[in-house]
Amino acid sequence: MRQKIGILGATGMVGQRFIQLLENHPWFEVAWLAASDRSSGKKYGEAVRWKLDTALPEHIANMTVSPAVPDGAPKIIFAALDTDIAREMEPAFSAAGCAVISNSSAFRMHEDVPLVIPEVNADHLPILENQEWRKQSGGYIVTNPNCSAIGLVLVLKPLVERFGIDAIFVSTMQAISGAGYPGVASMDILGNVVPYIKNEEEKMQAETLRLLGSRDGKLVKPLDARMTAHCNRVAVEDGHTESVSVKFSRKATKEEILAAWREFQPLAGRDLPTAPAQPIEFVGLEDRPQPRLDKMRGNGMAATVGRLRECTLLDWKFTVLSHNTIRGAAGAALLNAELLVSLGKLDPVKNSDQAAVTA
Question: What is the pLDDT of residues 170-200, one digit of tens each?
Fold first, then answer.
């Protein structure tokens, strides 16, 4: 029997991705939708401006949008909220005993809130037991990272494990869908590059080092590396492309780097429905990856990497591509939820006296 879930921020672009990815999901069933006050009480099909390339499921279109309050909501909530709204709303749901699987940045850097990519740092999940909500009601918040960080971190993780990393340089070319709908005005983006995305560089740097860090008891110790990021908005619909240079702690050959990516399959055997069989796919063609051609690898959940070559400033450089609203948003949260199911944390949401997570 599938578990009933709710979606906060259901009419936005990430909310729509949740609905698309959850249709026919073997473990979860969309049973509750909530959005802004202006949408509450309407049929979802009337409240939403559906923008995805698959049809809005009829049974979802006929669902009534609920008020965004915990009363009557399922105990598993996927949250796709703006940061300021998330700061108020997500604690209210976790205090009411809900597991809040959040795509917002509001609580990502809180020391007792796990910031998780299942292939990278599933062992950070035990810190959720330190949340006051968890102790009092059984509810909690788990977050996934920023869309610009997630593809990068997937590709860096096996390199950190094998060679160590001392320094990271990254310059991003980020799709307009990352700005939501209606996003960036056409007169600002067509034929243009916007070399600024508010708070993006700071989030990317802090989140990357936290994700690649290690858990020390109740805390996460960030990776001890230097990092700088340049974040740009470009006229691409979906798919964030990143030019990356890294300095290793130990020397590595091209063959060793390719082997590290190829052999990186940390979720093998867990049978998580949304997990890609190969989370990192290398493309050897000299002009790849490209968003138009490669964004849907692994059903949009794989990071594609190419153009691996020596760097005259650091050690090695390469290009990374990931789908920003699937792997970088709704799909990331869905995979986190599947991981929580596999650990017994959503089966159903347990009371506060449950034993600690073992990952």
Answer: 999 999 999 998 889 999 999 999 999 999 9
Per the residue annotation, which of 98, 124, 231, 240 is the catalytic one?
A: 240
Which residue of the set 124, 147, 231, 323 is catalytic? Answer: 147
Asked if 274 and 301 count as a contact pair (C-beta separation under 8 A), the reply is yes
Residue 306: both structure tokens together: 């190419």
Cβ-Cβ contacts under 8 Å for 121 (sequence gap 6 or more): 115, 211, 212, 213, 215
CB half-sphere exposure, 240, CA atoms < 13 A: 33
Tell me which amino acid residue 51 is. K
Q: How far is the C-alpha of 18 from the C-alpha of 209, rounded, in Å? A: 27
pTM exceeding 0.70: yes
Can you give the pLDDT at residue 359?
Answer: 40
Rounded CA separation 4/179 (Å)? 29
323 is catalytic: no
State yes or no: is 147 an active-site residue. yes
Q: Read off the pLDDT band of 358 (50, 70, 90).
A: very low
CA dist 320 and 328 (Å) reads 13
> Can you list the positions of beta strands (E) in 35-79?
76-79
pLDDT tens-digit series, residues 194-236: 999 999 999 999 999 999 999 998 899 999 999 999 999 999 9
For residue 234, the 8-state DSSP code is E
